[in-house]
Specification:
This protein is of the alpha+beta class and 419 residues long. The protein has 3 domains: 175 residues, Triger factor/SurA peptide-binding fold (Orthogonal Bundle); 104 residues, Chitinase A, domain 3; 98 residues, Chitinase A, domain 3, CATH 3.10.50. The chain is 52% helix and 19% strand. The strands form 3 sheets. A 4-stranded antiparallel sheet has the order 4-3-6-5. Strands 8-7-10-9 form a 4-stranded antiparallel sheet, sandwiched between helices. Strands 2-1-11 form a 3-stranded antiparallel sheet. Helix 2 crosses helix 3. The two termini are 45 Å apart.
Amino acid sequence: MKQFLIPVLALALMLGASRAWAQNSQRIAAVVNDDVISVYDLETRLSLVIKTSQLPDRPEVKRRIAPQVLRRLIDERIQMQEARRLDIEVTEADVEGALNQIARQNNVPNDRFDEFLRAEGVDKLALVNQIEPEIAWGKVVSRRLRPSIRIGDEQIEEALARLKASEGQPEYRLAQIFLRVDNPTNESEVRQLAERLLEQLQAGASFAALARSFSQDASAANGGSLGWIRQNEVPTDLRAPLADLNPGEIAGPIRTLGGFYILFLRDQRAARGIDLPEVTVEMQQLFLPLGDNTAEADIARQTEQARALGAQANSCEDMERIGGELGTPMSGTLGVLTVNSLPPVLQNVVRGLEIGQASEPVRIDAGVVVLMVCRREGGDIDEGVRRRIENMLVMQRMDIAARRYLRDLRRAAFIDVRM
């Protein structure tokens, strides 16, 4: 009888534990308007954050990050509700594209991404549930805010002037995590989270994964990456901490008017001013060869001959004719080249030439050359440059407007947190 009772008791205990777990997982963590966030939803997201961010999988870690993760889930519910109100859908192609982007960020081929997730212990469905609100909110912002943003010629000219003035100044390849402070009552909680995230980053956690899970601005979808940003484009409150960083270092938490920032300086360089289209040239060349051990007198003679031949050329047609008469194999057309692809000794020569102007003789390893530019394209502030500047300004305005939009939706929502 005792042998029979032990399995029965064990089964009863197992069933009781199973029911307790099921009841706990079905508990409500928060109500957002008509949507419910269950404890199971929260636990699933916490597990995803732990896995993707390389955080220690310990109960105290989950307990500490749970409030911020729940806040993120609440925002996602609000974003999805607004998307449904506007009849905006997230398609399978949208999700697949986002997953492919994450695969590229992790240097994983698309066809092996599922295998990669399994090896990392990441639930793909949980990842998709995190991605869908990002995609939906992006569509909402594009539909509702983009049409109202107008960038005029004067604003583009001002941006161009700022870019030109920034030439030679520091330029940063920057990533960030932004944690907003909604009101003074939750400042301490947000600061503590920022400090804990900083500790985990210093211990080797993935910055991109933490940014995707916790950051509360548009860059979160890109793992916090801002790309290359010039010094005068960095918010004033962040310039001093950023100036103290070396590439590969992290600063924070930095308190600003809106909340706390953690900055990651990936790289740094001197700004090039306005990023103009690459200059391409079509050229003709006269080439007079020299041997390896040519005497200085012979080099001088060839140089003078090259100068005399160049003086006879007033057009590319003249250069082609003279090159044909000269009969050296490397004389004639060079085709279309980018100036940056030329040897350094020739780049400055070509940049200073007018169309149809023969250069002074230039000594190169194999001989002496005279160059003429027949056609030049690029290097000017064209319509393409102005469009890039306009798009940059639009994205900056949309990011600010999107934060306000979500803030207003949050204020208007019924939110009941039960944990």
